[in-house]
Design goal:
single chain, 175 residues, mainly beta, Immunoglobulin-like, six-stranded antiparallel β-sheet, 13 strands, rod-shaped
Length: 175
């Protein structure tokens, strides 16, 4: 290799090194995710059973309600009926309703506690509603297990037909 070519290569290498040293800059970009506060209660589909023609209480299969809240304050959830089971054609026939609540599986750091595990209507005593409740102490999700019972009086003392009641689930952020 001749000296002229060597000199040109050396000059080119020096220029690249010098321009690299003076042209270096840095930049940064911040990324931010805004997570809005969110609470939710989700109900299962309608449940139905056929009475077994005994004087035994008629217990529906356990129903799983999904409750979640991402507030660090936690949430409280209430499950309530506003009336006993009521005949769909002749509303003078009523059968008391019982609710029982427990905590199923859970996710997240929150602790879930049932604050009122059981309640029932007493239509003859003018207590037409019933409610059960639970509370969490932080961020989390839980499957709440709700058992609904048709409190059967003696078989044959109430009209044949369909009896319904509606459970309403309500969730709110703790104060």
């Amino acid at each position: 290799m001749n000296n002229l070519l060597k000199a040109r290569i050396l000059a080119l290498a020096l220029m690249c090194a010098a321009s690299s040293a003076f042209a270096q800059t840095t930049a940064s970009q911040t990324y931010k995710v805004i997570v809005p506060e969110s609470i939710y209660v989700g109900s299962p589909t309608a449940a139905e059973l056929t009475h077994d023609k005994s004087s035994n209480n008629q217990v529906f299969p356990d129903q799983t309600w999904v409750v979640r809240g991402n507030s660090t304050k936690g949430v409280n959830v209430n499950f309530a009926v506003a009336s006993p089971f009521t005949h769909t054609v002749d509303s003078s026939f009523k059968v008391d309703t019982q609710l029982d609540l427990s905590v199923g599986s859970k996710q997240g750091p929150a602790t879930w506690t049932v604050s009122k595990a059981t309640d029932k209507t007493n239509h003859s005593g003018s207590d037409l509603d019933a409610s059960v409740s639970a509370v969490s102490n932080g961020v989390g999700r839980a499957n709440m297990i709700l058992k609904v019972t048709f409190l059967s009086p003696e078989w044959g003392t109430y009209a044949a037909g369909d009896y319904t009641t509606t459970v309403v689930g309500t969730v709110a952020v703790n104060n």
